[in-house]
């Protein structure tokens, strides 16, 4: 059942201009701007840590979550890609400080680049993000008992915060990370096939978060503890003791995307602020539903950081009716990397082939060319999301993921300058 009627669909074809980057000083808000940088961004996408400086993202971010560290079957933390994390050398042109990595230097890879980024932006917080869709298989085992929780947390803090990386001198990466972001997908709910799940994950996740908080507080300095949280209220209730969790979390980021996608045959929105009229699917998935669910379960507004996507979901073979919205398809749309999903910067280059439609009441947009349909989060929609976050007095915005933006950072610019 829908929360409330949102009236008739208001969709109009628009030409969307490029939004130029603006100085960070234009944003006087204290709200958080959190962005995920992935350790695979530097491969096919060729989006390096230094690109965060070049496109203006680093100046606008309050925190980077570096994704992902994994958890093994014994509950220990490990690097999911040692080459990308701390072994890959960078040229002067590729590096943050403009100097090439030298043969034999102790620390290379993204961690060394993040270290340089912190030197350039001393107020920037950086957390190691653990888990993700493909790295959450053994969280349930790690969280199972007091002993397993204590050992897991010790392992992760030793590896990432104390910087004791395999094969390198002790403390080689110390001080790069100022916190831990937990991306267990999902406690007590199925995620990636093969993940261990248990009914008691709900209580054990609360205990795991508390163990992280205890051990982090023993370290010198201030350390952040955050968690990535699902959009689905049913999953929230199965796996999360919201009020208790937020007592130990610095803040929590909500999934503000993937409400619908090409794993379904019907086209739909992936990040609408409110449920659109005419949506034939139930239950409703929208940011309003998600935010209301966390507030009703005791999450403080100031600690709720709403996720926004820098990518689109797409379908092809779509019936040419209703501008493609809520129509059957023959499958995921072709794309650069993963069928049915496309980074904003790549899709924007194809914009001349599409018409842009917007539902201004429900708060989302899409592209359609008569047969291919893409969800569309552009600067106009980023402004809309920032205004919603500000209106509801939430803690800020979280971006998945930073490599989807353009060379002039038009998405993060629009988001950043409209947070109040």
TrEMBL record:
Signal peptide: 1-20
GH18 domain mapped to chain residues: 31-420
Coiled-coil stretches noted in the UniProt entry, renumbered to this chain: none
Catalytic class of the enzyme: hydrolase
Reactions accelerated catalytically: Random endo-hydrolysis of N-acetyl-beta-D-glucosaminide (1->4)-beta-linkages in chitin and chitodextrins
EC number: 3.2.1.14
InterPro entries in the record: Chitinase_II/V-like_cat, Chitinase_insertion_sf, GH, Glyco_hydro18_cat, Glycosyl_Hydrlase_18
Transmembrane spans: none
CDD domains listed in its UniProt record: GH18_chitinase
Keyword field contains Acetylation: no
Pfam families: Glyco_hydro_18
Highest taxon above the source species: Bacteria
Keywords on record: Carbohydrate metabolism, Chitin degradation, Polysaccharide degradation, Signal
PROSITE patterns: GH18_2
Keyword Zinc belongs to the record: no
Name of the protein this chain belongs to: chitinase
Organism of origin: Kribbella pratensis
